[in-house]
Design a protein that fits this description.
Layout: H1 3-17, E1 31-32, E2 36-42, E3 45-46, E4 66-67, H2 69-86, E5 97-103, H3 111-118, E6 140-142, H4 147-157, E7 164-166, E8 183-185, H5 190-203, E9 208-214, H6 217-231, E10 237-244, H7 255-270, E11 275-279, H8 286-294, E12 300-304, H9 312-315, E13 324-331, H10 339-343, H11 370-376, H12 378-383, H13 387-406, H14 421-428, E14 432-435, E15 438-441, E16 452-457, E17 466-473, E18 478-481, E19 507-511, E20 519-523, E21 528-529, E22 540-541, E23 546-547, E24 556-557, E25 559-561, H15 568-593, H16 598-603, H17 606-620, H18 631-665, H19 670-678, H20 681-703, E26 709-713, E27 716-723, H21 727-752, H22 763-786, H23 790-821, H24 828-842
Parallel strand pairs: 2-5, 2-6, 6-7, 7-8, 9-10, 9-11, 11-12, 12-13, 25-27
Antiparallel strand pairs: 1-5, 3-4, 13-16, 14-15, 16-17, 17-18, 19-20, 21-22, 23-24, 26-27
Organism: Rattus norvegicus (Rat)
Function: Putative taste receptor. TAS1R2/TAS1R3 recognizes diverse natural and synthetic sweeteners.
Keywords: Cell membrane, G-protein coupled receptor, Glycoprotein, Membrane, Receptor, Sensory transduction, Signal, Taste, Transducer, Transmembrane, Transmembrane helix
Length: about 850
């Protein structure tokens, strides 16, 4: 025997064991004959602890429990909708709808009504192989109001695909159409209720809350959904969560329950949280709020779930206004014309009883106190806007529109025929109509995307006791604020419920304890910033080219600095470079015009041009030091200038060496001197030194890089120093060391030739040039080891220009002076006389 067969056998057995239908009560609100019957499940009475009778097989007597005003109000909404449809000529013309309604007394009476609706008129449930042609007692069921009851009834009705539309059960479990294929509802699911609550708390910046739940499926499931939702954001934390004790039906709490409740209230009094979210049926809260009043709580914000958000009995405890502000999530307010008058009407319409139905009664189809109790609450029910009433009203109309399509109705008549539940279910899934200005349809999960309202309790009965302050759309998942809230606080200020106050901009959070909402605020230091959307608990470092001040939330571009033309040091160096360029050009012209004269030949002859050309090019390339550095300018700084300078130094050094050889070594080592001159020793030496310098430069560039970079100014982090790569400094120091060696050699050879003939004695000029080069190079190395930034660039450029000026003016300047102003000394005879004089002194 399969699972379905076993279920059917069990249901059939229960139908035989449970009480049989009773005698028809003609003037009962629970019955109305019609061509097609709708079943209605409502909670007219409720037992807080509903498990006491489940240990034995007996249907409870609901009228022995506490009456629920809202339950009776919702049952009247179904009666009103059916009668309105029966009086409508455009919807189901010629067809009368009937109803059978049962009091399920919350959780106590679920199975029996389901079986009652499921059975045929003879109270039998035959075991069939195919139930597609089976006609139960009703074609559809409206209700019940809570998720636990709805799931129980749906587990019975879904086997037979009997449409069931609940008007208040919000459990997300009901969205699973594999287990509940015939379940639909006219309210949004619990997920949307939770989302509306969370957005409400986020809007008012409440991040420290208390959650109180009932000890049942409703409390556990909703608190679980809230916890899941809060894990997606660290904006809201739960200070603590407690389970409320459920008293017996007498509402008298036992000592154990009283101690449990006292512990909860004591924690609530000691906590800094001032927002309390309560997921519980309203019957479990009467004792709780009486205790809240006894403890004299004030200044709290109570957020009600939909189960008690508009409960008139709780609202009737007017002293609750002193405990704080009451907010709740409920279905949108839609006024139904004529319903308020219908609710307190006692007479029934005189519809003829069709022969197609056989009315009977079952247990819990009476409520003697309902009408009088409802009248006493009539004013508050009218002012509240009949919120959940519209959910029942629209559920009946959804069935009516589906039946209208199924029967092929036109404007004047319908084709009455047998209607099987599965046929009606198919049509209900596709209904799409407008009712009192609202477009109604069911989505893929069987939910009707109705708007939710955030309401506030008011105790001025001249106004709506459940004033709407905001609206939530399940479609857009956004909360729209429409009214200001009247806070029950001094000066009408928004209550504060925060474990820690919000950090100021640019302050990061440092967690204190286990809750992310409890933290201390720390300033973000300069060079860091806080991006709250990315990480509120860590200050992020600014990129290398950017900077920030203390407590900044963004970084800004550092101010780039480099050598610019308008700066005084640049202007001074540019003037010196221009002086060097034009003086070198003049020297080059003078030496070219007097190339054959003894003065030019004694200065080096062709080798002079080997020195002057690099000097001229070097002075012309000085502008590469100015402006933002580039790969080309860094290459010139690291390679071009040092090679030019090395060529000049090597030429001076070899010229000094050659003069000493002529006058002091030629006689002693004639063969060596002959070899030196025969194989162009001077040019070989210059080429050799140049090759070494080029090799050093190329090796340094290959080992490092010449790409320019931006570096932070150590004295001012707001400034970005644009310069060549730091390895450029290392290469510069290395190259300067080689130049120092050449300077020392040139100075030594010049000193050795200090006693030579006057026209060949260049010791003082070379000494001047080499000493200046040596001193400036030492100064540059010392300066670079101490300073950084643009100053190094300026110093490097200044030393480079001065070194070239020292060579150009210090070495060639005196010779040009002699050529231009003492031409008589620039003759072969004069030079020969000087050599003869030197020879005679040495002999």
């Amino acid at each position: 025997m399969g699972p379905q067969a076993r279920t059917l056998c069990l249901l059939s057995l229960l139908l035989h064991v449970l009480p049989k239908p009773g005698k028809l009560v003609e003037n009962s609100d629970f019955h109305l004959a019609g061509d097609y019957l709708l079943g209605g499940l409502f909670t007219l009475h409720a037992n807080v602890k509903s498990i006491s009778h489940l240990s034995y097989l007996q249907v409870p007597k609901c009228n022995e429990f506490t009456m629920k005003v809202l339950g009776y109000n919702l049952m009247q909404a179904m009666r009103f909708a059916v009668e309105e449809i029966n009086n409508c000529s455009s919807l189901l013309p010629g067809v009368l709808l009937g109803y059978e309604m049962v009091d399920v007394c919350y959780l106590s009476n679920n199975i029996h009504p389901g079986l009652y609706f499921l059975a045929q008129d003879d109270d039998l449930l035959p075991i069939l192989k195919d139930y597609s042609q089976y006609m139960p007692h009703v074609v559809a069921v409206i209700g019940p109001d809570n998720s636990e009851s709805a799931i129980t009834v749906s587990n019975i009705l879904s086997h037979f695909l009997i449409p069931q539309i609940t008007y208040s059960a919000i459990s997300d479990k009901l969205r699973d159409k594999r287990h509940f294929p015939s379940m639909l509802r006219t309210v949004p699911s619990a997920t949307h209720h939770i989302e509306a609550m969370v957005q409400l708390m986020v809007h008012f910046q409440w991040n420290w809350i208390v959650v109180l739940v009932s000890d049942d499926d409703y409390g556990r499931e909703n608190s679980h959904l809230l916890s899941q939702r809060l894990t997606k954001t660290s904006d809201i934390c739960i200070a603590f969560q407690e389970v409320l004790p459920i008293p017996e039906s007498s509402q008298v709490m036992r000592s154990e329950e009283q101690r449990q409740l006292d512990n909860i209230l004591d924690k609530l009094r000691r906590t800094s949280a001032r927002v309390v979210v309560v997921f519980s049926p309203e019957l479990s809260l009467y004792s709780f709020f009486h205790e809240v009043l006894r403890w004299n709580f004030t200044g709290f914000v109570w957020i009600a779930s939909e189960s008690w958000a508009i409960d008139p009995v709780l609202h009737n405890l007017t002293e609750l206004r002193h405990t704080g502000t009451f907010l709740g999530v409920t279905i949108q307010r839609v006024s139904i014309p004529g319903f308020s008058q219908f609710r307190v009407r006692r007479d029934k319409p005189g519809y003829p009883v069709p022969n197609t139905t056989n009315l009977r009664t079952t247990c819990n189809q009476d409520c003697d106190a309902c009408l009088n109790t409802t009248k006493s609450f009539n004013n508050i029910l009218i002012l509240s806007g009949e919120r959940v009433v519209y959910s029942v009203y629209s559920a009946v109309y959804a069935v009516a529109h589906a039946l209208h399509r199924l029967l092929g109705c036109n404007r004047v008549r319908c084709t009455k025929q047998k209607v099987y539940p599965w046929q009606l279910l198919r049509e209900i899934w596709h209904v799409n109509f407008t009712l009192l200005g609202n477009r109604l349809f069911f989505d893929q999960q069987g939910d009707m995307p109705m708007l939710l309202d955030i309401i506030q309790w008011q105790w001025d009965l001249s106004q709506n006791p459940f004033q709407s302050i905001a609206s939530y759309s399940p479609t857009s998942k956004r909360l729209t604020y429409i009214n200001n809230v009247s806070w029950y606080t001094p000066n009408n200020t928004v209550p504060v419920s925060m474990c820690s106050k919000s950090c100021q901009p640019g302050q990061m959070k440092k967690s204190v304890g286990l809750h992310p909402c409890c933290f201390e605020c720390l300033d973000c230091m300069p060079g860091t910033y806080l991006n709250r959307s990315a990480d509120e608990f860590n200050c992020l470092s600014c990129p290398g080219s950017m900077w920030s001040y203390k407590n900044d939330i963004t970084c800004f571009q550092r101010r780039p600095t480099f050598l610019e033309w308008h700066e005084v040091p640049t202007i001074v160096v540019a003037i010196l470079a221009a002086l060097g360029f034009f003086s070198t050009l003049a020297i080059l012209f003078i030496f070219w015009r007097h190339f054959q004269t003894p003065m030019v030949r004694s200065a080096g002859g062709p080798m002079c041009f080997l020195m002057l050309v690099p000097l001229l090019l070097a002075f012309g390339m000085v502008p590469v030091y100015v402006g933002p550095p580039t790969v080309f300018s860094c290459f010139c700084r690291q390679a071009f200038f040092t090679v030019c300078f090395s060529i000049c130094l090597s030429c001076i050094t070899v010229r000094s060496f050659q003069i000493v050889c002529v006058f002091k070594m030629a006689r002693r080592l004639p063969s060596a001197y002959s070899f030196w001159m025969r194989y162009h020793g001077p040019y070989v030496f210059v080429a050799f030194i140049t090759a070494i310098k080029v090799a050093l430069v190329v090796g340094n560039m290959l080992a490092t890089t010449i790409n320019p970079i931006g570096r932070t100014d150590p004295d001012d982090p707001n400034i970005m120093i644009l310069s060549c790569h730091p390895n450029y400094r290392n290469g510069l120091l290395f190259n300067t060391s080689m130049d120092l060696l050449l300077s020392v050699l040139g100075f030594s050879f010049a000193y050795m030739g200090k006693e030579l003939p006057t026209n060949y004695n260049e010791a003082k000029f070379i000494t001047l040039s080499m000493t200046f080069s040596f001193t400036s190079s030492i100064s540059l190395c010392t300066f670079m080891s101490v300073h950084d930034g643009v100053l190094v660039t300026i110093m490097d450029l200044l030393v480079t220009v001065l070194n070239f000026l020292a060579i150009g003016l210090g070495y060639f300047g005196p010779k040009c002076y002699m050529i231009l102003f003492y031409p008589e000394r620039n003759t072969s005879a004069y030079f020969n006389s000087m050599i003869q004089g030197y020879t005679m002194r040495k002999s």
